[in-house]
Amino acid sequence: MNPLRPSAALLLFALLAAACGAQTIVEGRVALPKPRAAPVMNKRYGIVTEGGILSTYPPTAVVYLAGVFPRPASLPVRQMAQKDLAFFPMLLPVQVGTRVEFPNFDDTYHNIFSYSPAKRFDLGRYLSDERPIPSEVFDVPGLVTLHCEIHEHMRALILVLDTPYFVMTDTDGRYLLSGLPAGKYVLKAWLDSRTTLERPVELIGNSTLEADFP
Amino acid sequence: MSLPPEPMPPGFARFRARLLVAMMLVVTAVTGAGLWFAQRSAAQDAAREFQREFQDELASLHAVHEERDALLAERGRSLARRPRLVAALEDNALDLLYPSAADELADVMERRPGSAQESAAYGLNARFYRFLDGKGAVIPPVEAKNVGELGPADEARLALRAVPDEPQTGYLWRRLRSGAETVDEVIAMPIVSTEANEAIAAIVLGLKPVEPGGGRAAAIRSGIWTGGRLFLPSLGTPPPAALAEAVARAVGAPEAGEGGFETRVAGTPHLLFWKRLNPGSLYPAAYEVSLYPLAGLTARRIQLAWQFAGAGALLLLAAFGASRIIAVRLSEPVEKLAVDSEEDRARRRRAEASLELTSQELQKSARFSADASHQLKTPLAVLRAGLEELLAREALSAEAREEVSALMHQTFRLTCIIEDLLLLSRMDAGRLQIEFGPVNLTPLVEAWLDDLSARPDAAGVAVESDLPPVVSVEGEERYTRIILENLLENALKYNRPGGRIRIAAAGDGGWTVLSVGNTGSPIPTSSQEHIFERFHRGAVGENIPGYGLGLNLARELARLHRGELRLARSGGDWTEFELRFRSDPAGVAR
Fold first, then answer.
1. Is the distance from CB of B130 to CB of B155 less than 8 angstroms?
2. Residue B501 in contact with residue B453, Cβ under 8 Å?
3. Which of B93, B134, B196 sits opposite A49 (nearest CB)?
4. I want to staple B429 with a disulfide (CB 3.0 to 4.6 A). Which of A18, B269, B366, B455 is the partner?
5. Would you say residue B462 lies in a domain?
C-alpha cells in the first residue's frame, strides 16, 4: 500500500474531479442571426441600430442562468475602455452591483453618458490621465446604452444581470457555463435589446447538460 | 394758304365742306380708337404691375423661406448628430429630450426685444418648438416655459401622419390666452439618423410669419387663409365674412394654385391675389392673400384718362386744322377742273350741234342733187325723143332742121351735167366705192386725142404728148377716164387759138405724176383758190362752154383714188395742173 498522505489524496481527488468534469456544466449553441452586411461606416463600431433595436456586430449572445442566488460580498471591478474612438468591449455583461471603470486610452476627450432607465449617468469630459479612473456601479439589472457626448458614433452596451452565472458566446453562438449549482432554473440567452430567449433547465450535480437555443 | 378771289360755284363749296367733314370724321375715329386702345392697355398694365408686385413679394418671401428652411435643415442635421438627443430618443428618455435640446436650440427661440436682432438675422425667431416622435406624434415637453407655451389642442395640431423626409410648412391659426388671434408659420424638420439614414424624429418650429413688404407695403394688406379661416388683421378680426367666403370659394377650386379677382372691401374696390404658400405639404393648405386697393389704380386710370383726353383734344385740334388746309389744297385743282370741264362741255355741245346741222344740210343737199338728177333725166329723154322725131320729118326746112339739131346738142350737154351731178351726189353721200385695179393712163389719153382730131373746136391747138406706152396706176378705169377727160377738156376749153397742150408723166417715189399744161390767159390769183369749188367758173370764161363742175369732180375723184389734183402754176401764158395717182407696183415693174 502506498503510504499516501490522506490530505494529499484528498487534494488530488478534488483536482481530478475538477479536471474530469466533476462540475455542473451547461453548454450548447445559440442560433445567432445571420450577420447581415451592415453599412460600411458602422463596421468597426460593434453596436448597430436597426429600427431602434441595438445589437452587436458581428452578432453574439449572452447566456445566463436566471434564479435567486446569494450576492457575494464584493465583486471584481470591470473595465469598459475607450480606445481608437471606440468602446472596448462592445458588449459587457456584469453582475448587479459591479463597478465598471471607463478608462480613456485615447489622446482626446471623451464624455461617457447614458440615458438608459437601468442607469443614468454622465461622467463629464476627461482625458486619459484622469485619476481615479471614472467609474459607475451598476446596481439595477437591465441594458445600459453608453454614448459619448463628443463622438456621436461611439456606442456600447452593458448588460446588468442579477446572476453570477453568465457567459458570452463566440461568434458561432457556442457557449459553456460551468460551476453551476444543481437545481431547476431558467436558462436565458440575450440576443439584442429586444430579444431574450429562455428555456427551463434542470441541473444535476457534476454532469454536463446540452442546451441549445432554440 | 390763299383762297381763290373769285366766288366759288355752290357745288364746289359743297364738295369742299364734304371733304372737310369726311377728313374730320376719319381723324376723330382714328384718334378715338387710338386713345381707347392706349387707355385700355395702360389700365391692363397697371393690373399686371400689381400682379407682378404680388408675385415679386411672394418670390422674395419664398426666398426668405428657402433660406430659413436651409438653415433649419442644417439645424435638423446637426440635432440628429447630438448624442444626447439621439440617446434621449433611442433610449426613450423623453424627459431628457427637451433639456438635451435646450442648448442646441437656445438661439431659435424669440428673445426679449433687446436681443431679437441677433436671431432675426438668422431668420429664426421661433415662438415655440416641439419634437415629434418616430410616428409623427407630438412629444409633450416637461416644462413649456422654455419651449413656448401652446394649448393642448393647438399642440395636437402640430402632429403629422408620419415623420416627414422633407421639411413641411404649415400655418397654425390659434387664439392666444389674451384673446388675440394669431397665425404661426409651422415648419416640421426631420431629424435624420446618420447611422440608419432614416428620420427618427422631427422638430416643429412655430415662427412668426414673414411679413411681406414691398414698395407700397402701406397700401397693401396681406393675410393668410388656412383651415377655412381668413387671417387678415389689418381688416379687423374677424375679417368681413363676405371676403372670407369669396377667398374660400376661390381657393376651394380643384387644382387651383393661385389666382386673383376684383372685390369690394368696405365699399371700395380692391384687387385680391392669392397663392398657395405650402404646396404639397402634409399640413393643411394655406394661401397668401394680398389685397390691393384699387383707389390708387382708379385715380391713376382717371389721371390717364384726363391726360389722354387732353392729348386727344390737342391732337384733334391740330388734325382739324390740317384737315382744313389739306381740304382746301385738294379742292383747288378740283375746282379748276370743274370750271374747265364745264367750259369744255359747252364748247363741245356747240360743236356737236353745228356738226349735226352741217351733217343734216349735207345729207339734204346730197339727196336733193340725186333727186333732181333723176327727175331731170326723164323729161330730157322725152325731149330728145321729140326732137329726133322732128328731125325725121321730111317737111322740115333746112333752117328749122339746123335749129332742132342745135337743140339736140343741148340735150346731150344736159345729159352730161346730170351724169356729173349724179356722180357728185353719190360721192357726197359716200356711196361711191373705187374698185382698185391697174389702169394704164396712156391709152385713155390717146383715145381722147383721137376724138379731138375730129372735133371742130380743137382746130389750131397743138398737142404735145410725152407719155410712155404704159403709165400704170391704181384705180378704176371709168373714173380715171372721167378725171383725165375733165382735165384735158379744161386744157382745151381755156386755150387760146393757136395755142398748145402739153401732157407729161413722171414717177415720184410711189406716185405717178401726170401734168397737163395749156397756153392761154392765166387764172387770176384771187380766183385760184376757188377753182376747185363746185359751180365756180373762171371770170375769163364767160363765153366758154361749161357748168363749173369739171375740176371739182376731177379733184373729188382723184382724192377717192387716194391721189390728188392741184394747180401747179398759172401765170404768163401757161396754166398747168398736176394729177397724182398711186403707181401700180406691177405696172412699174413691167
1. yes
2. no
3. B196
4. B366
5. yes
Domain edge (last residue) among B277, B295, B313: B295
**The dihedral sign for the CA sequence B194, B197, B200, B203:** positive
Would B442 be classed as within a structural domain? yes
Domain span at residue B571?
Answer: 435-589
Among B271, B295, B319, where does a domain finish? B295
The domain tally of chain B equals: 2
DSSP-derived 3-state class of residue B317: helix
Residue with cell 401757161: B574
Name the residue facing B87 among A39, A42, A147 (closest C-beta): A147
Alpha-carbon distance B13 to B23, whole Å?
A: 15
Q: What size, in residues, is chain A?
A: 214
Window from A9-23, B245-259, B442-456 with minimum mean pLDDT:
A9-23
Hunting for cell 322725152 — which residue is that?
B382
pLDDT at A1 over 50: no
Residues A45, A48: Cα–Cα separation, whole Å: 7
Is the Cβ of B196 closer than 8 Å to some Cβ of chain A? Answer: yes
CATH of the domain at B524: 3.30.565.10
Instruction: Classify residue B540 by its DSSP letter.
Output: G
User: What integer pLDDT is reported at residue A162 of this predicted model?
Assistant: 93
Distances in whole angstroms, Cα of residue B113 to Cα of each of B118, B138, B145, B181: 10, 29, 18, 21
Residue B371 has a pLDDT of: 79
pLDDT of residue B390 exceeding 80: yes
Angle between helical axes of B398-428 and B294-392 (0-180°, round to 10):
170
Each residue's pLDDT tens digit, A99-121: 999 999 999 999 999 999 999 99
Q: Which one-letter DSSP state was computed for residue B583?
A: B
User: Does B86 contact A148 at a Cβ distance shorter than 8 Å?
Assistant: no
Residue B290 in any domain: the answer is yes
Assess whether the previous peptide bond of B238 is cis (omega < 30° from 0): yes
pLDDT at A4: 44
Is residue B315 included in any domain, yes or no? no
Partner B contacted by A145 (CB < 8 A):
yes
Model pTM? 0.52
Q: Write the residue in B84, B88, B90 that is nearest to A49 by C-beta.
A: B90
